[in-house]
């Protein structure tokens, strides 16, 4: 994946015993970009050059479990550990404060990282997935969203998801279902396929769904505290009007002002779905760039 993000320098971030491959581009205030499922840092290949051109240091990191070097020996994919990774990446980059941008799972992680370390976060940009606790509270009363979220229950089953990923194209199906009518970005798809060709990566990334919200996990009390904590960083939420994974209306509702006490803005981009930053990079990049510049302090 040497050409994963053209023009970006590849580097390795070490956090504890784990190593995370990252790509860096530009100079200036740091912007940490965190991808989701089923994806890789290639998802940021359109955004990073624009951030660098606008005077930012953009760094996209490969999340825990998406490569052999970041699969923990103890199998810890609890939410507290995943959030610790984000803070650890800032430490490894020597970034006292940074803007955070996340998509899908990455969106959840950057929000909770902001809750844990408010003094480290300049601003948040969250794409497609809103606050996990607010989403969970709203889900039972939204049957259309329950139907959209069928995959969450599927991915928690033993063995079957691994089989569907390896032999039946489940991950490509997700991309098409979540962004209807769009032909997925071939570079992002190729990067995903290469990562998930390793069965250990498939097992590890599925552990996000199987273990991250496990109330019996050894650090669940810490995770629960983060889920209920306010977020003080100014936050931009971006959703696609045609998102087949999380409805744009539920996304808006799941960014409540009582949680986002630093202020929040929510925009819905028409004509695009879950991978809005790849479907409409011009519109998404312009909105994100303007947001970062407005909050560059």
Topology:
Elements: E1 9-15, E2 18-25, E3 30-34, H1 47-53, E4 57-61, H2 79-93, E5 98-103, H3 105-116, E6 121-127, H4 132-138, H5 143-148, H6 150-155, H7 160-168, H8 170-178, H9 186-196, H10 199-211, H11 220-227, E7 235-240, H12 248-253, E8 264-269, H13 276-279, H14 281-294
Parallel strand pairs: 3-4, 3-5, 5-6, 6-7, 7-8
Antiparallel strand pairs: 1-2, 2-4
Helix pairs in contact: 2-3, 7-10
- Cross-sheet strand order for the largest sheet: 1-2-4-3-5-6-7-8
| Uncertain parts | none
Question: Judging by the overall fold, what is the CATH architecture?
Answer: 3-Layer(aba) Sandwich
What is the global morphology? globular
- What series of H and E elements makes up the topology? EEEHEHEHEHHHHHHHHEHEHH
How much strand content do the residues show?
Answer: 15-25%
- Report Rg: 17 Å
Number of domains: 1
Fraction of residues in H or I helices: 40-55%
What number is the mean pLDDT?
Answer: 96
Distance between the termini: 34 Å
Separate helix tally: 14
